[in-house]
Specification:
Radius of gyration: 28 Å
Largest sheet: none
Strand content: under 5%
Helix content: over 70%
Shape: elongated
Number of strands: 0
Number of helices: 16
Length: about 400
Amino acid sequence: MGELELWQSLGVALAIGLLVGAERERDQPGRTAGIRTFALVAVIGSLAVQVPLVVAAVLCAGVALLVVAGYVVTGDQDRGITTETAVLATLGLGALSHTDPAVAVGVAVAVTVLLVSRETLHRFVRETVTDQERSDALVFFVAAFVVLPILPSGPVGPYGAWVPQRIWLLVVLIIAIGWVGYAATRMFGARRGVMIAGLAGGFVSATATTGVMAARARRREVPVRAALAGTLLASVATLVQLALVTALVDPTVTVRLLPAVVAGSLVLALEAWWLGRSVHGEDDSTPTGRPFAIGPALLLAAIISAVLPLALWLQDRYGAAGATAASATAALADVHGASVAMATLVHSGDLPLTTAVVAIGAGLATNTLGKVLVGAAAGGARFAGALLLLLLPAVVVVGVALSLS
């Protein structure tokens, strides 16, 4: 490293120390470590990378001993170790500024934001987040950071149709998208209309949301128009999520689907707006349920796992018509699983793009039929009939858009 780079790394380390130290000085004025201490610790970290290993070890050990001594001699009753931990983090960031100054500065800013947000974070964890949400968050992290990395990343199974890591990644993403919908409901509340809850629930499972809305309308917990509007917005979420999950597998499929997704979403949204004009916040309840929809996500994995080899077998035996039939049948339960399966086959070169688009269109049609059947079972024939009449224009528009794309 040249002399200029050396001075640059020391300057970055000094800036990092001043940034973190200024926050600690302002927030904890009586602590032993203030702005000057943090600046010096960051410079020591930068120097430790540039000196022999023995000297670096002595410097780091000295800082660690000073941190322990400062913690022991303090007379505070509430002995938090945030400041002491921040000192050690600043030491590490000072060292990182020697090898990767841009990353060091970014992490320093993140550390400072974390320190500044103490009260907000404590209030969020203690008062806002429920026990159910905390436990489900742990489940999500296990799925994303424990299970996902250990799954095989290569093709396995009949026809080499299964890539376990890719299938599980989609499960994790579906769970995360469901969290977005749940968080939106928590943030805005259900008083702004069943429509918000319908849109949020649609990202978890539009079919399940249809059943919930129909049942609430049947029990007269909400007006029928409001329940229908929420159901339509759940179908909007279905189309949006369809574009998202297929883009993760093969963007060329999404490009072909995009005109139909936009057109169908507009029709459904306009119908929901028309129905929702007469809704005036009749539901003030706090949203209930689980933020992470583990069941629908696992069902998605099962559907994908079943459809992939089935579609390959049907295509091998019956050609394009076989793949279309497989997608349409699977979409009765979940259109996303069937669509992802088709996109996966396109990505691997086992299915033509046009055939996949036709199969996804057939899946959307049968999925719409499934929603009507669920609406009939949960809400009665009148609710199902109204829902069918409202969904038909969107089905026609989507079909026309797919045929022209």
